[in-house]
Amino acid sequence: MAAYNEGAPLRQVVVCPPGLAFCGVGADELAAHNFHATVEAAAALEQHRLLREMLTAYGAEVLVLEEPPGKPNAVFVQDVAVGTASGFVRMRMGLPTRESEATWMAAALSARGIPEIGHIEAPGTAEGGDVILAGDVAFVGLSGRTNAEGVRQLSVLLGELGYAVRVIPVPAPSLHLGGVMSVIGPHQIMVGAGVLPDGLLAGFEAVHLPRRDFISGNVITLGPGEVIVEQHNETAITALVRAGIKVHILDLLEFVKGGGGPSCLILPLARGE
């Protein structure tokens, strides 16, 4: 039986603070890197520092990697690997400019003694933002970044780990499944309007968002019923507070400009009591 659950207490994460590449994306490069706007370097550095500080204060071990040269999306470490109780799965990126990031992350994790237990092969593409692990269920997004062959390979790999895979087409305007839903407790999910048919929620209690944008469903779960939410995500903040969830609000706007939400900024490696 698979043991890893994204609703359990966060114990160890990898992060990559923004560097010259992330902060230096110009207006003529936004589309190539999926940025929505240019970022303010000082603000990005301070926002990421406060995120790391909050993760550490919660009790999580934070492993910091240096941004690889010329890789502005490397700050979004969630996408390049998926951590499990047995080791990590190396992804194969769906955005051409991110192609080498999975190798960079795999080398960093292997150097820390974390085993690689599988990887996605061509022609499959799969990004970690499309994988949500919830105890014995794995939600996998079929998106513009994770294609049908990537879903097939993930289904095999995760099935071998004991997960029952539930495949979900990712609706526009979200890039990944993580933009429309998050596990916020061992048996609790926050999900955007019109995303999941009731059958795919079997075994879970849902906190429904009345509306959604591209990252309205994206939060960092620190532990059961306790999350980090980007301060401009008022839809999620209101719904979570109403549901009795403890909400920590952070300004992460510079990373929203880069096309990501809170969970995109961490690669969880360990969760548990």
Task: Supply database-style keywords.
three-stranded mixed sheet; 15 strands; 7 helices; globular; alpha/beta
Number of domains: 1
What strand order characterises the main sheet? Answer: 2-1-15
Low-confidence parts lasting 5 or more residues at pLDDT below 50?
none
DSSP strand count: 15
CATH homologous superfamily placement: L-arginine/glycine Amidinotransferase, Chain A
Report the CATH architecture.
5-stranded Propeller
From the helix content, strand content and strand pairing, which structural class follows?
alpha/beta
CATH-defined fold name = L-arginine/glycine Amidinotransferase, Chain A
What is the molecular shape? Answer: globular
User: Oligomer, anyone?
Assistant: single chain
- Beta percentage is 15-25%
Q: Number of helical runs?
A: 7
Mean pLDDT: 95
Radius of gyration: 17 Å
Question: What is the gist of this entry?
Answer:
The protein has 273 residues and is an alpha/beta fold. The chain has seven helices and 15 strands.
